Amino acid sequence: MIPPTDPEIVVEAEYNSLKAEGTREALELFIARHPDHPLAEKARDDIRRLYK
């Protein structure tokens, strides 16, 4: 049996993957999927910084 994956690792990997896409839409997708996660605020900051 495969041990369960740590959810935080999965969310962080998703954030890194979507950020690497380099689009506003990818970051907005992350925010929509995880609106209350601390990385959602980082994604919002990324959007503000990159897409002024």
Describe the structure.
- There is one protein chain.
- By secondary structure, this protein is mainly alpha-helical.
- Helices cover 73% and strands 0% of the residues.
- The protein is built from three helices and no strands.
- Helix 1 packs antiparallel against helix 2 and helix 2 packs antiparallel against helix 3 (38-50).
- The termini are far apart.
- The mean pLDDT is 93.
Short recap of the structure:
With 52 residues, the chain is mostly helical.
Q: How much helix is in the residues?
A: over 70%
Low-confidence stretches: none
What fraction of the residues are assigned to beta strands by DSSP? under 5%
Computed over alpha carbons, the radius of gyration is 12 Å
Layout: helices, strands, pairs:
Blueprint: H1 7-21, H2 24-33, H3 38-50
Helix pairs in contact: 1-2, 2-3
What descriptive keywords fit this protein?
52 residues
